[in-house]
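Bench log. Compound arrived from synthesis this morning; before running ITC I wanted a structural hypothesis for how PMV sits in the protein. Inputs:
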Amino acid sequence: MKAKAKAHSNIALIKYWGKRSALLNLPAVGSISLTLDSLHTITTVEFIKNLKSDYLILNKKPADERETKRVSSFLNIIRRKADLSLHAEVNSINNFPTAAGLASSASAFAALALAASSAAGLDLSPGELSVLARRGSGSAARSVFGGFVEMKMGKKDDGSDALACQIAAKDYWDLRVLIAVTSQDKKKTGSTDGMTLSKDTSPYYQNWLKTSFDDLKEMRDAIKKRDFQKLGELSEYNCLKMHALALSSRPGLLYWNAVTVEVMRHIKFLRGQGCPVYFTIDAGPQVKAICQPEDVEKIANELEHIRGVQKVIHTSLGNGAELIGDNR
Ligand code: PMV
């Protein structure tokens, strides 16, 4: 009753921000993302007889109560499905900073969903796995798949149609992402609290929902045509729209720091010089520059020289979640 899985993080080009149901973690909008090869989580789950409670080790240290509770509630869903009463030992390692806008919850819950469901003896289809991963974190539903991925908001109350699917595999189009890390601090307002606040207080929320359909359609079209300029322009537009929503909440949510803004300005400057590069930013201070392979070296060098940028992580597109190693 043990399994080990690996899942990669992802970055949304069209963002998920807002829930139509908090209970089942149902998104109020669809989203489109790129799965990222260089950022991953590896998670081992073992259901053990006589274990008194679930035990979580996160990045080689015992997790705090809040994190353990979140994982335990997620395992409860699997225990119910598999008719299992055993507690589990969960060991999870990220190869990147946790909870700082690098989407650790996406790779974490995709890896946990796969490892825990197979350790419990459930044989889920990728779609079922995506529905399950969504219960842990909305963006995790996308990390089940590799390459270009779309998350459907779904219509049903039970959430069975709120799942991700692959638009195209990673080899379809060789895009690159350069992540400018500007801070490794844990963020103060998590995405769930941020989304609730925006839904309850931002005067722009209804328009965010209304305009999301066009953004999704246009992004699908940009991917279909491999139109880099369109993909980039839409990503920046949708990212700034999401942050406008966060900023217009009460109290306002400002996920950026001064270096974040400097990197955004520099990316615009580079574009003015004829270099095709666009940014997107999640609920955190890191800036993800989207570019093509031939421009990686130049852009990485530019970003590394911005004062306050701690490091630049280069990634190509990655695969979906997979079982690895010694599963018993
Ligand atoms: O998956 P969550 O609940 O951490 O929410 C993700 C929210 C954003 O990263 C800001 C946007 C997205 O679509 O990934």
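What the model suggests: The radius of gyration is 19 Å. The pocket of PMV is lined by residues 12, 15-17, 31, 103, 105-106, 137-139, 191-192, 282-283 (CB under 6 Å).
ITC booked for Thursday regardless.
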